[in-house]
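In response to reviewer comment 3 from the previous cycle, which asked for concrete evidence that the modeling workflow produces usable outputs, we include below a single protein chain processed end to end. The sequence was submitted unchanged, and the resulting structure tokens are shown without manual editing.
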Amino acid sequence: MNVKRWVALLVAVAVLGIALMFNMFATIATADFGEVFEGAAVDEPYVEEIEETGTDGRIVVLELEGAIQDLGEDNPFAPVDYNHQQFLDMLDGAMEDQTVDGIVIEVDSPGGGLIESDEIHDKVTTAQEEFDKDVYISMGGMAASGGYYVAAPADYISAHPSTLTGSIGVVLSGGIGGLNFSELLEDLGIEDDTITTGPYKDILSPTREMEDDEEAMLQDMADEMLDEFVDVIVEGRDMPEDEVRDLADGSIYTGNQALDNGLIDGVGSLDDTLETMQENLGLSNPEVVRYQSEAGFASLLGGVVNEIRGDDVSDLVSVLQRESSPRLMYLYEQ
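The workflow returned the following structure tokens.
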């Protein structure tokens, strides 16, 4: 057996091993741990922590931190910084509480899934229109792409001068980060024998080159979702469509640049945002309450597992989950 065939055999074995590992991780990562540990979690999905006592009104602070993706509730192998369903529950609780005058959302996120971003956006508009709640956004280090999408309908948006925001656009990729291995596999003498029922069934496959008509088809899909993003900003920020489209080329902006471009209303910290809400709502001494995650048994187990296996394995699981299939994302990718 010549060297080329030995190399091809070793690559094939490696690919098989990676596939088996992926299946194992995917099985673990998608297991219904909520069912496994049913009854072990606490009754309440979150707790209220009073940050400032007061006697005139009530303001709730929520945290939206990390990639906006729904990886399943009570999954101990999911990233621990963001639980999508829990965040939606917190928003529901704040908007339905008649003692709450306003909601401030701290956003520190590069964006994420289209559906998840749109679900939060819809919750914000529901709080405003159906429950007459003012919703303010305080941007942290990053509020890009989907992180800006969820902020667009807010009554007031503030950012730190060094906040990275914008990145208005859509990313569509498949495989591992959109990489294509067709030429490498050809050089190694490895063939993909996948059988499909149509010419587009394996579109975005990393083992073959993309055809021109396929690229045009996918570009149309991405452009359609960009139109939705633009509409959200036009409506939420009351900006002319042509101005929004000029900004919707994927560029990122600092807080100061975003202010100049009309994407935000002010520059400042969370305290500044709370003070602005207090003044605008005419509250002299409001109570400020932060909704915090209340870790159940499964979540605590996840933290222990994360400590045992290390950050590298945790990151690997996250990557395998995110990169396993083609997807449209409102996501800032560095």
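The domain at 3-331 is CATH 3.90.226.10 (2-enoyl-CoA Hydratase; Chain A, domain 1). We consider this sufficient to address the reviewer's concern, and the full set will be provided in the supplementary archive.
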